[in-house]
Amino acid sequence: MSLLSPDVDERTRARTDSPWVTVVWDDPVNLMSYVTYVFQQHFGFSRERAERLMHQVDAEGRAIVATGHREAMEAHVQSMHGYGLQATVDRAPEA
What we know:
The protein is an alpha+beta fold.
């Protein structure tokens, strides 16, 4: 049995502690007004912010709507699925 070196352990911890994101994807089903409504209701976004993110989903095919710990992002994804939106969890892009 071997022990991990501190360097390996630190890299592993940094990778698992890194921020995660909730990504909402464009789909051919949901109306833009409904997506805006969901963003306002679930995330508490202002109408302006919700519309800006909705337009990003429409124009770019996706938008990052939340950043945080993996468990919280997974909960957001489950909620988005409950609203009928397509969403996934991913690692946050490196700054």
